[in-house]
Amino acid sequence: MIHEHNNYSLLPHNTFGIDVKASSFLEYDTVAELRKLLEDGRITEPWLHIGSGSNLLFLQDFKGTVLHSCINSIELLEETAETVSLRVGAGVIWDDFVSYCVENQWYGAENLSLIPGEVGASAVQNIGAYGVEVKDLIQSVETVDVTTATERLFLLDDCHYSYRHSIFKEPEMQKYIVTFVCFQLNKKEGFTLNYGSISEELKVRCSDLTLENVRQVIIDVRNSKLPDPKVVGNAGSFFMNPVVKRSHYKTLKEKYSDIPCYDVDSELVKIPAAWMIDRCGWKGYSIGQVGIHDKQALVLINKGGAKGVEVAELAQEIKQSVFNKFQIEIFPEVKFV
Questions:
Q1: Which residue of 132, 215, 255, 310 is 20 to 30 Å from 195, comparing CA positions?
Q2: Greatest Cα-to-Cα distance within the chain, rounded to the nearest angstrom
Q3: Which phi and psi (to 5°) does residue 296 adopt?
Q4: Contact 24, 65 (CB under 8 A)
Q5: Would residue 201 show up in a list of annotated catalytic residues for this protein?
């Protein structure tokens, strides 16, 4: 069923808790309903398709149409002795999908536990955590072209995935709305535990290496670092980790002996943005109704009643200070609207 609302508050639809309104808000349950909305001309410009709003910062009211998918099915497409292939609706809560995989003893998604958002957005953002990116699981992405109301299938190679990026984030490709994502999970045991402190945490907390234990440790670690958006408005990691030339990292290493990095290739490394922001003295900083989380410098927070522009202004100050100190430019992972 199609649900339509006018002058609709987006407060429940963004984890930053920014109180703005959309001129029109449309929800749909099927691809056929989405195509009908397009064919009937009920979607007015500008338009924006959202998931759970966990990667958005609204700077003002949205004078147009906001769309949201309620396609919530999970379908088993194929099963072999080693793998399963699943077709998952774009409206499925991402962590519900991870939980479903773990319950069925399917390996691959557990490191992405507790990442906020929905399945459709996961394929657009190429979400990642603890050494795993969602592109490692995706087989294909089903979409609808807003300009023609026709369906188009993107295979994995068509999506041009890279760190926190996909073809769907390119300006000319944002006309595609994701409707389903097809994933392949493994039935044979296999974990990725060499990133961050996960392996150490497992040794401390658990005696058995199981999917359930890995998922629980990752949930516990994330909860220890990140505030619950239901309590404190935030969008998780606000900035992406910058990728820089190894030569620049070595120069910084001479001045900051404890600066961490992760290898990308022979010429590039990734430096944690949180470490640099922390070294600039921002962790726990607060001004008015916005601030930086006291346990994780990468998380900007709305302490209650903040406006999106106030968050954006603080983000710009952080960005400038990091550049001044390290000569490295950091970019928001969050989309400004």
A1: 255
A2: 62
A3: -150, 110
A4: yes
A5: no
Query: Rounded to an integer, what distance in angstroms lies between the CA atom of residue 41 and that of residue 315?
Result: 37
Question: Pairing mode, if any, of strands 138-145 and 150-155?
Answer: antiparallel
Please compute the mean of the pLDDT values over residues 5-33 and round it to a whole number.
Answer: 95
Residue 63 CA to its chain's centroid (Å) = 25
200-246 pLDDT, tens per residue?
A: 777 777 768 899 999 999 998 888 888 888 889 999 889 999 999 99
State phi, psi for 266 to the nearest 5 degrees. -65, -20
Residue 170 region by backbone torsions, left for phi larger than 0, else alpha for psi between -120 and 50, else beta: beta
Q: Is 122 a catalytic residue?
A: no
Q: Which two structure tokens, joined as six digits, stand for 286?
A: 């607060």
Instruction: Point out the catalytic residue in the list 23, 27, 164, 222.
Output: 164
**Is residue 333 among the annotated active site residues?**
yes
**Of 227, 317, 307, 312, nearest in space to 281 by CA:** 317
| 3-state secondary structure at position 211 | helix
The amino acid that residue 166 corresponds to is S
Per 3-state DSSP, the chain is made up of helix, strand and coil in percentages (nearest 5) of 30, 30, 40
pTM for the whole structure: 0.85
Which tokens is 251 given?
């120069």
